[in-house]
Design brief:
Number of domains: 6
Strand order of the largest sheet: 27-30-31-37-36-35-34
Distance between the termini: 91 Å
Shape: elongated
Structural class: alpha+beta
Largest sheet: 7 strands, mixed
Low-confidence stretches: none
Length: 834
């Protein structure tokens, strides 16, 4: 809402020199958000000039200019070149003298053009910022003005005004008017407020005067509500359609963001902005009989004021006459009864329509308007008569019309119901000890009627506040009017004995460990296609059971994810397309694993003002599918960047396994690997991840064909772990390894085994046989070639031995090594390679 300060000052007392910033600061106190300041961006000498004479001079470019002599209140007239031709000798115009700056900014200076020194510029309405009119310069007689040459044109045309803009929330429709903003400014500053609706002489229809026929033939078939509860009409005859809109009104409308159209239309817009009541003006002679408010019939059409033919919906609320629809109620009028330059008799309509009906029609026809914005938020039903009377008043004063006794008064609107406000309720809700006087004063200030009762107060909200519906909203108003600064900012004291759960601590530890290892945490959308879920949600091919969204944001991704990998891969693709070739990403998040054949959902939700019972909570929880937390990652590009003397090392399955083992280390478990297979991963380069023999996930390289289809490098390392399962397998109280005080003994062991024996199984056998002295064992070489029996391979393990109470001898370390080799020989026929 844009509010010109001169207009605001008519209804609330502004101190001399009040700035837009000061008005903004006051309105922010009462909950209106500051948006901006609007003003006519011009300065310098801009005066009234009178054209004394001119000479038309044709130019080589085909254009004819006028060399004018213009009196501007100085000793000598000024010579000015003008390209417009819509003025005559003797006309009064607006002259921007050298040194002036017009909106743009467009500085004015004396300059040579078309063979003359033009000592200023004759300005158009568009160049002054008064509208989009650009067919010629502004002739002041067209505005009904005849000032003396040299008069300051800025003040004459009200171009020295400015407007503040505030954001109005949907529940405060009354603030979509100068009347409402003035009242709010009064609340914030204590300045005296003069209600403009109360100062309008009401034009009551005489009882013996003929009534203009109006029928309300409507009840919303869906919501059961009447579409129009108030419908007031007043007639004005004999207006002069040629009269111009006065400049002060044009300036105020312009600052308020409304374009000047014609005097009659400008008056209806002016009253709407002033009082918040949308109005519509009909050409009384174009109406066919009376007016009926009803819903549209199937197949009906209307040509609206914007010239478009529109097919109406059965839910559209219409204004009709004997010939059919003449307007979409509260949205836009029809072209057939439009006020034109030939209109002399006008019927003014001030109505109150159902907000939901208006909102739906405006959206259905894509016709947002200043009127619909106000009706959607709620218009004061008690201001309709005052608004119609104000429009008639202005049509009499400015258009020369005469009020007619013809009209109608229809109102079925119910007065607001009284709300009981118990003693002590406001203080209990807001947390501030308000006195009874403070509460009564605040509620009286917003216009409520107050009655003392035994339990507290009985409060009847004003007609312009449909948002005040219960005791809570009344308490909020007391807090707002009295000042939000009184509400203390106190952090609640945390109850003792609480903190992060074990699972929360371990999840944070996992995330910190991965980030410390150089990975970047990301968050992806949990919505996937059926193909992505089937591909990544299970190791073996086949359809995967997934939860389908009732109202998906994207029809191509209607399912909740069963794996975090598709989202990670999509993020990797996006980053790769932007030039980031080396990526190490991870995500910790929930996946959704419904059980096949199980129906999920919930019955009616419990009411919000009572704690649900244990049975209700159990039923709600039963309607939720399992949602385990997974952690997964994607690694591509170089795992080790190229350095001086060191070539780059590309990412591979080894990096994926290492990342999965970081997860295990963070929760104090050992992650083991064995040969695995997954439909989305490279055959032979896929590892199944295990903790204590229980499968917990997979690590490997993305299937090359899949990587190609996704525009990714050929080698993309991926991994995913069921984090909830890993945490469940982790020890409740992990015991840290003591710092060794004796040196270690290291030895290598090379074993020859059949090629189809997994290296991990051989390593496990060596560890089992080596006993308690073995501290660490890892595979360091896998040789297949000359010097070995056919269909065999040589696996070399680096072993580290240590005793907690002594320094080991070489013999003790060798004995342990040989014991491990013996177990491998027993299980797999392994032989020590010499």
């Amino acid at each position: 809402m844009r509010v010109p300060l001169s207009w605001l000052g008519e209804f609330v007392e502004l101190e001399t020199g009040t700035t837009p910033d000061a008005v903004h600061a006051a309105l922010v106190k009462v909950g209106l958000e500051e948006e901006g300041v609007h003003e006519f961006e011009l300065s310098g000498p801009i005066v009234v000039g009178q054209v004394l004479e001119y000479v038309d001079e044709p130019q080589k470019n085909g254009k004819t200019i006028r060399w004018c002599q213009v009196e501007v209140g100085e000793a000598e007239p000024r010579g000015i070149v003008c390209g417009a031709h819509n003025f005559a000798v003797g006309d009064k115009v607006v002259v921007s003298l050298p040194g002036a700056v017009l909106p743009g900014p467009f500085p004015i200076a004396a300059r040579t053009t078309y063979g003359h020194v033009s000592d200023g510029m004759i300005a158009s309405a568009r160049e002054l910022g008064l509208g989009e009119e650009h067919d010629g310069i502004l002739v002041l007689s067209t505005l009904g003005l005849d000032p003396a040459p040299g008069t300051d044109a800025v003040s004459l045309l009200s171009l020295d005004d400015s407007a503040v803009e505030v954001n109005v929330t949907p529940d405060r429709g009354y603030a979509f008017s100068i009347r409402g903003i003035a009242r709010e400014y009064s609340h914030a500053t204590g300045a005296v407020f003069h209600d403009p609706a109360a100062s309008v002489p009401l034009l009551e229809r005489a009882l013996d005067a003929p009534e203009f026929p109006v029928a309300i033939d409507d009840r919303d078939p869906v919501r059961g509500r009447v579409g129009a509860t108030v419908f007031i009409t007043r007639a004005v005859r004999g207006i002069d359609p040629t009269r111009p809109t006065p400049p002060w009104m044009i300036a105020r409308l312009t600052l308020a963001g409304v374009r000047s159209i014609s005097l009659t239309v400008d008056i209806t817009n002016y009253v709407m902005l002033e009082l918040g009541q949308p109005l519509h003006a009909y050409d009384l002679q174009a109406l066919d009989g009376g007016i009926t408010v009803r819903r549209a019939k199937k197949g009906e059409k209307i040509t609206t004021l914007d010239g478009r033919d529109r097919t109406l919906d059965a839910q559209d609320l219409l204004i009709t006459d004997g010939s059919g629809p003449i307007g979409i109620a509260g949205v836009m009028g029809g072209a057939r009864t439009e006020v034109t330059d030939a209109t002399t008799d006008v019927l003014v309509e001030a109505a109150n329509f159902d907000p939901v009906s208006i909102a739906r029609s405006a959206r259905r026809h894509k016709l947002p308007s200043e009127a619909s914005r106000r009706f959607e938020r709620g218009v004061d039903p008690a201001v309709a008569v005052a608004a119609a009377s104000r429009a008639v008043q202005l049509l009499e004063q400015l258009a020369g019309g005469v009020a007619d006794a013809v009209g109608s008064d229809h109102s079925t609107h119910r007065a607001p119901s009284a709300i009981e406000l118990p003693t002590g309720y406001v203080a209990a809700l807001v947390g501030v000890e308000y006195t009874a006087d403070e509460i009564e004063r605040a509620l009286a200030e917003i216009g409520a009627r107050i009655e003392m009762v035994d339990a507290g107060l009985l409060v009847t909200p004003p007609s312009w506040r449909p948002d005040l519906t219960d005791k809570s909203t009344l308490a909020e108003e007391v807090a707002r009017i009295d000042g939000y600064h009184r509400i203390p900012s106190i952090l609640p004291t945390a109850p003792p004995g609480r903190g992060l759960t074990r699972a929360q601590r371990l999840r944070r530890s996992v995330s910190a460990q991965l980030a410390a290892g150089g990975a970047t945490e990301v968050l992806s959308y949990p919505f996937l296609s059926q193909r992505s879920n089937d591909l990544f949600g299970a190791a073996a091919p086949g359809p995967v059971t997934a939860m389908r969204l009732a109202n998906p944001l994207d029809s191509e991704a209607p399912l909740l994810r069963t794996s975090v990998l598709p989202g990670l891969i999509d993020i990797a693709r996006r980053n790769l397309s932007r030039g980031l070739t080396d990526l190490r990403l991870y995500e910790v998040g929930t996946v959704f694993r419904p059980e096949a054949g199980t129906s999920y959902g919930s019955g009616p939700l419990p009411v919000g003002n009572a704690r649900p019972s244990a049975e209700v909570l159990a039923e709600l929880n039963a309607g939720i599918p399992p949602q385990p937390r997974h952690v997964g990652g994607v690694i591509l590009g170089n795992a080790v960047a190229r350095q001086v003397g060191q070539p780059a090392v590309a990412a591979s399955i080894a990096d994926a396994i290492a990342a999965a083992r970081q997860v295990g280390a963070a929760v104090a478990v050992q992650v083991d690997v064995r040969q695995g297979s997954h439909q989305a991963m490279h055959p032979g380069r896929t590892a199944e991840l295990l903790v204590n023999g229980t499968p917990v996930g997979y690590a490997g390289e993305l299937l090359p064909s899949l990587a190609h289809d996704l525009d990714l490098p050929r080698v993309v390392a991926v991994w995913e772990v069921d984090l909830d399962r890993v945490i469940a397998l982790a020890p409740l109280e992990p015991s840290p390894s003591p710092i060794a005080s004796y040196p270690a003994a290291t030895q290598d062991l090379s074993l020859v085994v059949p090629v189809d024996v997994a290296a991990g199984e051989v390593l496990a056998a060596v560890v089992d046989g080596s006993g308690a002295l073995l501290e660490d064992a890892r595979l360091v070489d896998d040789y297949r070639g000359a010097g070995l029996p056919e269909n065999s391979k040589s696996l070399t393990f680096a072993l580290r031995f240590r005793a907690p109470d002594r320094t080991l001898t070489a013999g003790e370390a060798s004995d342990s090594k040989l014991a491990g080799a013996a177990v491998a020989a027993e299980r797999f026929g392994a032989t020590i390679r010499e």
